[in-house]
């Protein structure tokens, strides 16, 4: 087990109607002027925005609104938010939505307290050391951004998608009402399930030894996610399934299931090239990338075989005695799960072609501050990443 220091300061409020207490929470955490940030309109259609604004009014809190955060959110929206925060003297940012809105809120929160260009924090060596407080009202169980120190933003023009991470970006509070996810299109629910699963897998693929506690936590969360996927597909208004998925997504990425081990994150770094280039949703991109990355590990790295065989047996019910056979059957079981969710699993399915691979691999390993390799499990260079992309072809 690795040494660690772990602190999660975020206050979680979970359950029915919990968004009605938003104003009280903002006031409790000393917010006086609030930027209410949201996406393309789902929160207006669902009535969430109106309920939150009413709650801010009841808490006598002044607010301004910024609408229009796009999925795979853009730096230009962050700049717009920073100007608004400065002009209006905002002291608290409230994100209504999913990972894209929350990540934009984090970027605005850091950028507003930084004299330079906020993009300095993405893909470079710099990390934010100050940020305005943010609160979240989550509407999709997926990214775990409601409990993570991370923010992922895409630069307009170059379309480079890069990440920053700092404890100052951890939300002050996150309101988790599973009812709010009932309006999600089935495809977005499935993308979210894939993403939360992937956050566990990126931790499971590790060289750290004697990590039985977090292995079992990860396996338990994976089993819960797989179990809840069917009920929610059959009945999108199944509160209990929605609730379990929402808490699983938060647990998957809040740090607890893996503070004691080294992580991988190769699939995420490779996926960013797909979501930025083809506009694919992050979870759908991961469904394409994950089987290819795991297959590559089994092809080239002996230590991956027992680890992925353990995953196959404990989570995917594989009972093959031979480790390599079991591990490969586990990869196929994961691919079949993504297919059952309606996720794409080939590069072609999102418009990719063989000819795109050299550029995708170069962008993954070199552009925007990358050092030439990605991945914490194996250092994957451009050649290895190109091979992985080729495993995604039909
Ligand atoms: O924009 P609106 O109209 O709100 O529609 C959104 C959006 O189109 C819609 N939606 C969300 N909640 C809804 C809803 N529609 C109906 N009813 C609801 N209740 O869903 C679409 C996708 O929203 P988005 O916020 O993009 O989804 P998600 O939460 O999956 O976030 C994805 C982003 O998070 C990043 C990803 O890279 C991607 O950019 N990630 C952030 C992480 C973090 N900060 O820790 C970790 C992740 O690995 C991930 O990289
Ligand atoms: Zn993710």
From TrEMBL:
Keywords: Oxidoreductase
EC annotation from Swiss-Prot or TrEMBL: 1.1.1.192
UniProt-recorded Gene Ontology molecular function terms: alcohol dehydrogenase (NADP+) activity; butanol dehydrogenase (NAD+) activity; long-chain-alcohol dehydrogenase activity; metal ion binding; methylglyoxal reductase (NADPH) (acetol producing) activity
Domain of life: Bacteria
Chain ranges of the Alcohol dehydrogenase iron-type/glycerol dehydrogenase GldA domain: 9-178
Pfam families, alphabetized: ADH_Fe_C, Fe-ADH
GO-annotated cellular components: cytosol
Domain Fe-containing alcohol dehydrogenase-like C-terminal: 190-367
PANTHER family from the UniProt entry: ALCOHOL DEHYDROGENASE YQHD
Protein name, per record: Long-chain-alcohol dehydrogenase 2
Record organism: Collinsella aerofaciens
Gene this chain is encoded by: adh2
